[in-house]
Amino acid sequence: MNVPKIREVGMAKSPTVEDVARVAGVSRQTVSNVINAPDIVRDATRQRVNAAIAALGYAPSMAARRLRTQRSATIGIHLDPYAGGISGIVLDRFIHALTDRATPRGLRILVYAAADADEELRRIRQLREGGEIDRIVLTGTYAGDPRADWLAHHDIPFVAFGRPWGEPGAGAEMGHPGRPWVDVDGAAGTRAATGHALAAGRRVAFLGWPEGSGTGDDRERGWREAMGDAADGLRWTSVDSVSQARAVVDEALAEASVDAVVCASDTLALGAHLAASHSGRPDLPVIGFDNTPVAEALGLSSVEQRPERVAEAVLDLLVADPATHDGDWHRLITPELVVR
Amino acid sequence: MNVPKIREVGMAKSPTVEDVARVAGVSRQTVSNVINAPDIVRDATRQRVNAAIAALGYAPSMAARRLRTQRSATIGIHLDPYAGGISGIVLDRFIHALTDRATPRGLRILVYAAADADEELRRIRQLREGGEIDRIVLTGTYAGDPRADWLAHHDIPFVAFGRPWGEPGAGAEMGHPGRPWVDVDGAAGTRAATGHALAAGRRVAFLGWPEGSGTGDDRERGWREAMGDAADGLRWTSVDSVSQARAVVDEALAEASVDAVVCASDTLALGAHLAASHSGRPDLPVIGFDNTPVAEALGLSSVEQRPERVAEAVLDLLVADPATHDGDWHRLITPELVVR
After folding, report:
1. What ipTM was estimated for this complex?
2. Which of residues 275-304 of A touch B (CB under 8 A)?
3. Which CATH architecture has domain B186-304?
4. What is the pLDDT of residues A171-193, one digit of tens each?
5. Residue extents of the structural domains in chain A
6. Across the beta sheet with B260-263, what order do the strands follow?
7. Taking CA atoms, what residue in A is nearest to B92?
């Protein structure tokens, strides 16, 4: 900040928000954020903008400010089209829990549709520019997800439900959250499920998805850690479909003797349960993942993701002030095995 | 509108929105609606307010108006806490579909939590006064629901998903929607299911909930209409629980010979299917209602509510202009039997 620079922009009449933005070297939106929602702006940026405001003698319109800040923070979250399937309920439970916990905190939840990541980013930009949302909850993250980078680059506060696999701490630094996330510790869930299943006998199979998905590989890891060398030859693979899982387990049970099956999802667990029932082993212990109404209805044990805890942690990080928050920006929620 | 009345309120300086409200005999909010969202105000009220505006020479603040109308209409909808169960997915599918169809129309969806009807009305009032929502979608309606009356009384545009049982046309009149609703024709669904089941044999049982719920009685009616006199002695009752339904059907199958079972929900259908399987009749046709992932996974036929069509109809009614809309304010969506 220096006087010549201020003179350059020309101060014949009252300074405007554009003048402040030019002097501070930030966007108009960032100046607006410093005035209306200072806690969402990085420390260094806020100081630069405040210095520019002071140097220029800028007086933000109090009326405009009041109009904006009358609205409490609104959180935008993408709602996928309904795709069917047994485990879709987990994301819906998360959104129920988020709404349930946001409302008493005075936070609003605005849901929007988008066909893909590009459309979602256009939508976020539009809602943000219209002053309709202030913060974002990202769901359905994946390795190389462009959304987290885009949000970080545009200084839009966000928290992801789900890890950006392969780059857990990316961008986090003192005073700035980088890419904050909350996720469920899948390996801990299958470790607990396998530990429980081992009570039935040593041969505990794992029915998982094809390798290569962060979530699936994580869930397999928990089973391997609990099994050690005894895991050999007991890893079965199916896409997330009841009928394919049933066919895979039908075939596997004809060849190998097992004492229990730990599954990467309730969909796989239902397939395994049907296969076991039709192979004359209706009591073979089958443990699912996600604790959906299907597992509950069939009396199968399942790993409960605890979406309520995820929602609570997401909200905590979403309203945390980067300037003062000294905890981690990444939280792993330990799931709970529901035994039936 | 007359001159003495105007003089009564005293016009020493520029007229305000309060002056317009007093002269027109409406609330400040209604004046604001006439200015910012005229299509949501009744014809007669709008004319009265516009006459008052003209008589007083009131000039709404263009800046304030622009600030408000930059935001497109936002629809508020209550999201219940997650209660588990198999059929909860229907409401979630509806909300997915509503979001999916509202977004391209430029409408926003804001979800909020509330423990009961009173809290919901307080929440709606608060969101409405803050300018955060303009319209409401009611779900979970029931006979004597106080919310519809309250919304109608406060001139807040709304559409209910579900009938206010017992008073289908309440309050509707020319140029005013009264209490608009969209619902699924449950009787048509069970009539279709029963018609299909009759191909398996004449003795088609109905497994329904205890009498007295609008939705449940409607679904039973469809079965009775399709069965005629043959219905005698084939009406079974269970609360919406897999285990109770299973016990009821276990007992019923031991006493009566039936050719198929039509159920009021997929939860009941799963109970009936488990009972049939364990009574040595795994192939007894069982037809559910709601077409949830459970029915899909188990290969059971089920009546699909088509939440996407409900959402489309709700949005149509929600944006309809009461002054020009000449169609019905109540729509029954015909469900579809998904045969497996």
Report:
1. 0.72
2. 293-294, 296-297
3. 3-Layer(aba) Sandwich (3.40)
4. 444 455 678 999 999 999 999 99
5. 3-68, 73-184+306-335, 186-304
6. B235-237, B204-208, B260-263, B286-289, B301-304, B336-338
7. A92
